[in-house]
Design goal:
Blueprint (H helix, E strand, L loop, with lengths): L11 E8 L10 H18 L1 E8 L3 E8 L4 H19 L12 E5 L1 H13 L6 H4 L3 H10 L5 H5 L11 H4 L7 H17 L13 E2 L2 H12 L21 H12 L3 H5 L6 H15 L5 H7 L5 H17 L1 H15 L2
Parallel strand pairs: 4-5
Antiparallel strand pairs: 1-3, 1-4, 2-3
Helix pairs in contact: 1-2, 10-12, 10-15, 12-14, 14-15
Length: 336
């Protein structure tokens, strides 16, 4: 089975997380949590990785990382393995501690770092028992939760020497009394406003960034890269963005259909439209979220597009001519 693509380069920022196998706990007590942070500190120093945020939950954790040397995988292997060995020895168990490989989302710093920081710090008040409390009770729980970097952002006395606070606080006024107070207010406003997840705009399941960042990422990092075939996204390969208009023109030419007909929700050229929808998802998913693609396609839902693509795949298994037409479109787009 193909594994999620890892994108590494010097200076990259990531949202990094691992979850307990079968959602089991990975921390039984504060001794485990302190050891986890000790191993984390050692791993950060060894691989020159900077930590800008963390939260430890019962069965998972979140980290915001900045890799100066483009070595996330080496850091992750050492860090996760070291804690697994410790945990298994202490609790007299064996086998995997985490559910599969770690998950790492590449993040564009400028528009997303502050929102990402708030997202991870709000995790302790997103569990069912706490969400049932009034807002005042949720804020109290947030202010008393010691196993995250949130308190260190707000108050100097709670700071850890392995954390970097300045980059995030730049967005709220700096690492000073005013900036720290503004950050506390920003995080707690997330409860009052019930803000959504920053990952709603994720591209290709691996990147959180705007179109300009995606184009830079392709041209500077991915264009000439040769990733391991086992490390490609399950349903797509990272490719240069192909404009929607070019996909429309290609499908219209191959299927000999007018543009107006192709864009109709209830067109008689159903197969051509199915191919059009599938190719839009395939070639634009790194640069657009599925939700955004659906809006471009006339307000289709993510679930609706998924069903269309599934039906197309089943239909092409039985219809050789349709498969030839699809491959012809694909060939034109690949050579663009």
């Amino acid at each position: 089975m193909a594994r999620p693509l890892r994108i590494e380069y010097p200076g990259a920022w990531y949202h990094f997380t691992s979850r307990g196998n079968e959602r089991n706990c990975i921390f039984k007590d504060d001794t485990d949590r302190n050891k986890f942070l000790s191993i984390l500190k050692d791993s950060l120093e060894r691989y020159m990785v900077r930590l800008h945020g963390y939260v430890l939950m019962e069965n998972h954790f979140h980290l915001v990382l900045h890799t100066l040397s483009g070595n996330l995988n080496r850091f992750a292997q050492r860090f996760n393995t070291a804690y697994t060995v410790y945990y298994n020895r202490r609790h007299k168990r064996s086998g995997h501690l985490y559910q599969g490989r770690y998950k790492a989302i590449l993040v564009e710093k400028e528009p997303y770092l502050l929102a990402l920081s708030r997202y991870i710090h709000l995790n302790p008040v997103k569990i069912k028992e706490i969400k049932k409390l009034p807002i005042s009770g949720q804020i109290e729980c947030l202010r008393n939760y010691q196993w995250s970097s949130n308190l260190g952002y707000g108050f100097l006395r709670y700071r850890n020497d392995f954390m970097c606070y300045g980059d995030v606080l730049e967005y709220t006024g700096g690492d000073n009394k005013y900036g720290r107070k503004s950050y506390r207010e920003f995080v707690e406003e997330g409860l009052l406003q019930n803000v959504g997840s920053p990952f709603e705009g994720i591209k290709g399941q691996v990147v959180l960034g705007e179109s300009g960042f995606m184009n830079w990422l392709y041209e500077k990092i991915l264009k000439n890269a040769k990733p391991d075939k086992t490390e490609q996204s399950k349903s797509r390969v990272l490719v240069k963005e192909i404009l929607q208009e070019f996909i429309i023109d290609t499908v219209c030419k191959v299927f000999e259909v007018e543009k107006a007909e192709l864009l109709k929700r209830r067109t008689v050229f159903r197969e051509a439209r199915m191919v059009y929808i599938d190719l839009c998802c395939k070639y634009r998913l790194l640069h657009k979220s599925l939700k955004e693609i659906g809006q471009e396609l006339g307000g289709l839902t993510v679930g609706g597009m998924s069903q269309i693509r599934k039906r197309l795949k089943e239909k092409m298994q039985k219809d050789n001519f349709l498969r030839i037409m699809y491959n012809q479109c694909n060939k034109v787009l690949c050579n663009e």
